[in-house]
Each structure stands twice: as structure tokens, then as C-alpha cells.
Amino acid sequence: MAGGSWAWRPSRRRRARWWLRTGMLLAVIGLRRVVCATRTRWEPVCLAVGAGLMVTGFEVPAAAVAFLIGLGIMVVALVRGIAVKGRAAAQAADYWQWHG
User: Fold this and answer.
1) pLDDT (tens digit, 9 = 90+) per residue, 34-86?
2) 38 neighbors 46 (Cβ within 8 angstroms)
């Protein structure tokens, strides 16, 4: 082979920068959508994000920290959700106890 293999040719800087910029733009757009969804429906979004991080941390050994972060997010979301819903459920039970 006189010209060498095309597989060993270094990538062009413009192409690599374009992919990097495009990836960062998509990540920012996705992050903004998650933030907007979290403002309106924080509990299911936090549970989904926590579950996704837990699965990622469990499947990829190098991302073990993601498992712990996902576990923390899920625990906080569940505890806050139970505290908020538990108070409303107790108030409803008190109402039906005295008015039923």
C-alpha cells in the first residue's frame, strides 16, 4: 500500500469540533426540557432520572458513582413524595372518620 490505510488517518479538527458542539447543544436542549418537566411534575421525572442513573451505574462498572447518585435521587423523591401525599391522605382519612 503506497498511500497507507485511511483508517489510520487522524480525524479532521473541524469535524471533531462540529460533533462536539452538536453534542453539547443537544445535551443542553435535553437538560432544559428535563428542567421544565421537573418544575411541573417533579416526582415522576426525578424517579425516572434516578432509575436511569441507577441502571447506568449498575451496567457500567466504571460509572459506579452514577448508581449512588441515582439511588440518592430516588430516595429523596420517594421520601418527599410520601411526606406530601401522606399528609393529604391523613387529612382525607380524618375527614371521612368524622363525616362518614
Assistant:
1) 778 767 777 888 888 889 889 988 898 888 888 998 899 888 888 887 666 65
2) yes
- Angle formed by the axes of helices 42-59 and 13-40, nearest 10°: 140
Q: Which helix (H) or strand (E) holds 73?
A: helix 64-99
pTM of the model: 0.49
SS3 content of the chain, % helix, strand, coil (to 5): 90, 0, 10
Classify residue 33 by its DSSP letter: H
The C-alpha atoms of residue 48 and residue 51 are separated, in whole angstroms, by 5
Q: Is the dihedral of CA 56, 58, 59, 60 positive or negative?
A: positive
